[in-house]
Amino acid sequence: MTSFGVVTAAAGPAAAAPCGFYETSSDAYYQHCTSDGSRVVIQVRVALAPDYERCVAPGKTWLGSADKIQGAHYVGRTC
Predict the structure, then answer these.
(1) Is 33 helix (H, G, I), strand (E, B) or coil?
(2) Contact 12, 65 (CB under 8 A)
(3) Quick one: which of 77, 31, 72, 75 has its CA closest to 51?
(4) Looking at residue 7, what DSSP letter applies?
(5) C-alpha dihedral over 76, 67, 18, 34, to 10 degrees?
(6) 2, 17, 47, 51: which sits with the fewest CB atoms below 10 Å from its CB?
(7) What are phi and psi of 8, to 5 degrees?
(8) Which residues are paired to 42 by β-bridges?
């Protein structure tokens, strides 16, 4: 039971979404971390398809399947 408590405690901070692009085992996300409410433009890299730009609000945005999305980054402008 003690090891279960340790795992639970360790999973809390690790479960927090990082800022920027990240993937889970099945999905790709972009986490826009801001305190000013700004929306930003990101470029999404897609496998076997054209890349595209997308406007994202603060917080977590689902981009698609981790198998199809290769990455995403802030392009330096708001929207």
Answers:
(1) coil
(2) no
(3) 72
(4) H
(5) 40
(6) 2
(7) -60, -45
(8) 54, 74
